[in-house]
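During the second half of the funding period, the structural biology subgroup turned its attention to how the target accommodates small molecules. The most pressing case was nicotinamide-adenine-dinucleotide, which had performed well in the primary screen but for which no bound structure existed. We therefore specified the complex as follows and requested a full 3D prediction, including the ligand pose.
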Amino acid sequence: VDTDVVVRCDYPMPTPGDVITTSSCRRREYSIRVVPDEASAIEAVVSEIGFASVAVVTDEMVARLHAERIASALEDRGLRICTVTIPSGERSKSLPMASRLLDELADSHIGRRDVLLAVGGGVVSDTAGWVASAFMRGIPYINVPTTLLAQIDASIGGKVAVDHQSAKNLIGAFYEPQAVVSCLSYLETLDSRQVISGIAEAIKVAVIASNGLFDFIESNITRLLHTDLGSLQLLVHAASVLKCALVERDPYEEDLRRPLNFGHTVGHAVETATGYGPILHGEAVALGMATALRISCARGLIEERASARIVDLLSAARLPVVSKELAVVPADDDIIRALGKVRRVRGGSLRFVLPTAIGSCAIVDNVRDDEIRAALHDLSSGRR
Ligand SMILES: NC(=O)c1ccc[n+]([C@@H]2O[C@H](COP(=O)([O-])OP(=O)(O)OC[C@H]3O[C@@H](n4cnc5c(N)ncnc54)[C@H](O)[C@@H]3O)[C@@H](O)[C@H]2O)c1
Ligand SMILES: [Zn+2]
């Protein structure tokens, strides 16, 4: 036979038995680089890609602003590139869009050892990451997050998914990127509402894990809101380190009691109730954090003063802490109904992360609808 490698296997006939136990374990280590400008970002991306062909996945807005330039810089380096662009916005994080991406990859020159480069916000990294996990049973992908939210949160951790009309992130996987390259200068083109949405996730990680980061955000909130790149660099770096530390404790969520879900129980319900799109993820999470804090106060788990300090920081960041501050105001009943679906899936219980202080939280699954209603009502009547 004309081959270079001959593989020989000759196991003995296995002994009969009922249970066959097998295991597999893939350890994935990847680096996150926070770089100041595009030149450094391209260097970092090129060193990760090597000689592979690249499928750049981006959205329409980011294509115009940054991704087309990145693609031509990679082409100038002699790399073979194809680009797939999806419409901007949460509605693209869907099964039909993922299916379209898979069709485009199937028609392209991208093979098993090539790389998918996700350039955009969390919608692009979640959708492209999931497509990368499925295409040819998994091809490598590199995240170049271009929103603050994606730099500090969505691009890290390997949770990839698309939404379903019945629930956020319903269809997905754990599939870590090969690398993450966060470039600060891309944040300069972000509108202030998107910057604020990203600050919500930074406040979240600070509340659950770091007094130091909380103090930093409190002291620098004005600079952060004005897109001061020096302050943003410190924020992106610190929040990325903390997210990694929290994810590493339980990367595949074998224990579902995750502090990182702070604000997300009600937050996801708000996004579902408003049809994915009009309310930004960070805005929904901010309302979710305020609601969880109110429940925590009502249960006597956190001092009113400590809770007020957190809610005040959310307000100082111009984040919504009351439903009526949202761009589209969901009725409390709609939020409860969306939570009801999650409750049903989870056998009647809903998991809430209830902070007890900065750096500590209780994770409970016995929060009743009337407590959630009371919390939403207290917030609308001005209680912090
Ligand atoms: N996988 C995770 O662990 C994780 C964590 C947090 C959030 N998420 C998900 O991330 C998504 C939200 O991500 P997002 O807030 O980045 O939203 P997004 O991806 O929709 O981006 C927001 C908007 O900003 C535009 N944009 C992106 N970069 C830009 C730039 N540099 N300049 C100007 N405009 C730019 C986009 O075109 C889009 O219109 C949600 O679906 C959320 O569920 C996932
Ligand atoms: Zn989130």
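Two results from this model are relevant to the next phase. The mean pLDDT is 94. Residues 59, 61-62, 65, 88-90, 93, 120-124, 126, 146-147, 149-150, 153-154, 157, 159, 186, 189-190, 194, 197, 280-281 surround nicotinamide-adenine-dinucleotide (ligand 1) (CB under 6 Å).
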